[in-house]
Design brief:
34% strand, alpha+beta, 3 helices, 4-stranded antiparallel sheet
Length: 126
C-alpha cells in the first residue's frame, strides 16, 4: 500500500465527518480519538456506537452506491485515514492477495454489527 493511496485528516470535537444521506465513496480508519456513529429518524437521533482507534467505518460506501446510512461525528479530536474506493482498486491491482484479506475483514465487522443489532432487537421485543 502506498502512502499516496491514503489521505489523513483531523476532525475537531463535534465536527461532522459525514451525514446520514450523503453520497460517498470512501471508508475511514480511526488513527486516534473517537467517532460517534448516530442514526436519525424524524426529529430524533440515536447514538449507535462510538468507534475507537483501530476501528473502521463508512465501509458500505466502498461496497455499494447507496447514501450513507448514519452520521459520523468526531467524539473527541480525531485523526482518521481515508481510503477511497478508487485507492482500494489501485491497491488490489498491485497486491491482489490483499483483496481477500480486506474483504473478509469488512465482512467480519459487518457480521458483528448485524449480530449486535439482532441482539438489541431481541432485547427490545422482550
Amino acid at each position: 500500500m502506498s502512502t499516496s493511496d491514503l489521505i489523513g485528516r483531523v476532525y475537531k470535537l463535534g465536527e461532522v465527518i459525514f451525514s446520514q444521506g450523503d453520497l460517498g465513496d470512501e471508508m475511514y480508519l480511526v488513527q486516534s480519538g473517537a467517532v460517534e456513529y448516530s442514526y436519525r429518524q424524524g426529529d430524533s437521533e440515536a447514538v449507535l456506537t462510538v468507534l475507537e482507534q483501530g476501528d473502521f467505518f463508512g465501509e458500505m460506501a466502498v461496497v455499494d452506491i447507496d447514501p450513507r446510512s448514519a452520521t459520523a461525528r468526531a467524539f473527541r479530536n480525531t485523526q482518521v485515514v481515508i481510503v477511497t474506493k478508487e485507492a482500494l482498486v489501485r491497491i488490489f491491482d498491485r497486491h491482489p492477495e490483499l483483496m481477500t484479506l480486506v474483504t473478509l475483514n469488512i465482512a467480519r465487522v459487518l457480521s458483528q454489527r448485524l449480530r449486535s443489532i439482532d441482539e438489541d432487537l431481541a432485547a427490545l421485543s422482550g
